[in-house]
Amino acid sequence: MMEKGGGENPIRINKYACACAIVASMISIIFGYDTGVMSGAMIFVKEEFKINDAKTEVLAGILNLCALVGSLCAGRTSDYIGRRYTIVIASLIFLCGSVIMGYGPSYAILLLGRCVAGLGVGFALMIAPVYSAEVSSPSSRGFLTSLPEVGISIGILLGYLSNYIFSRLSLRLGWRMMLGIAAIPSFFLAIGILKMPESPRWLIMKGRLGDAKKILYKVSNDPQEAEFRLREIKQAVGIDENCNDDIVKIPDSVKSQGEGVWKELLLRPTPSLRWILIAGVGIHFFEHATGIEAVILYSHKIFDKAGVHDHSHQILATVGVGFTKFIFIVLSTFLIDKAGRRKLLLTSLSGMVVTLTALGIFLTLAENSGGKLIWALVLSIITTYAVVMFFNIGLGPVTWVYSAEIFPLKYRALGAGIGVAVNRLMNATVSMSFLSISAAITTGGAFFLFAGISVVALIFFYFFLPETKGKSLEEMEAVFTRGRRTENVNREVEIVKH
């Protein structure tokens, strides 16, 4: 089946491409685990080391500041050594971070472990969606590229379950087991990823046509589709589409290395590239500016404010957050190639505006009543789950799919790296300021603030994010070129007339 952008072909998922995306997504499970497990581990870390809220916020957010650095490094690294080996590096860095955190004899050493793990997180968040997007066909790219986000959800759920299981151990051993056990899957992933193929688009970018062609035949549904994808990628890289050499020299003007790429993307972008950059950075900015990290990381605090004061009950309630996230992220993966990115985004943000506002109202009522209004407590928990539901039906998975697919090949790793850096910066900002904001304007007031930001995000997505469903990666610049889009619409109208 030959897949051309814009068609309504039924979704066919190549098993080999799916296997590649699943293995790449394993690194996201490890990251998700660390995010989820830290939510509960912080309760016991705070108790053992007697740290205040400020140090707790630093412990929660430092991982994301280091991930910012890791994501920027990952862009250049993946262009030099390839997408596959970059995943190996991410796994090994995370392994080291997990071992240090599991050892954690002091707050300072624990913080060091979080910093090391953060570098690995930055690598993982940037490379997993890019790799998945580059091995996928246009019709199934949304499903396969959202698998890393599914992996994060699975990891968060496993982290919450780990909190509940290991919280029964002694204070000194429990949280160390929670954090250190992530080293085991990191080790096996570093070995397992070596069995997977390199991205065919990266290989072509390096002039290795013969190797890329073999992989494209494996990740495509039939030979015709493989040849079609090969021709499109060759055109995008500047190679004659009739060239059949195994090794070719790539023109310097299209190589994705060096200062020139930075300048072309950030200082002298074309109108379409500028629009792509705004869309890619904007969607990452709003993913966390709307406050989801406050719900995931501080869910035990939210439930405490609502009136659930027992630690084991708080941790059990956070398991419900993990289940909700997992269920709706899985549902989203099956909708993203059918409903489209734009429709899911707008639905997701509309729901978040309503549920964040409701959460602010119910938390304010529950907090002011001192936990005596049972109905406000129950509705606070329900709306917390509802916020997680709406986020994961659209904004969560679409962010990673959209930003991984819209940048042209030459700028993809760099653009994705910049997007992840902004993502981690906003994640760190929310996770390191939520307790302070809550103390200043109450927990309910903090969620009113997030609801307002969600309204701005909804407006931004409506005007700046066009639909990319069904388009090949090589067609994205045309999608973000206003003149070309108008021409395509006019051409379709003429075809219908005739």
From TrEMBL:
It is found in: Membrane. Keywords: Membrane, Sugar transport, Symport, Transmembrane, Transmembrane helix, Transport. It is a multi-pass membrane protein. It comes from the Eukaryota. Residues 20-469 form the Major facilitator superfamily (MFS) profile domain. It holds the Pfam family Sugar_tr. GO terms for cellular component: membrane. The chain crosses the membrane at residues 21-44, 56-73, 85-103, 109-131, 143-161, 173-194, 275-296, 316-337, 344-366, 372-402, 447-465. InterPro entries: MFS_dom (IPR020846), MFS_sugar_transport-like (IPR005828), MFS_trans_sf (IPR036259), Myo-inositol_Transporter (IPR050814), Sugar/inositol_transpt (IPR003663), Sugar_transporter_CS (IPR005829). The keyword Transcription regulation does not apply. Its main location: membrane. PANTHER family: PROTON MYO-INOSITOL COTRANSPORTER (PTHR48020), SUGAR TRANSPORTER (PTHR48020:SF49). This is Probable polyol transporter 6.
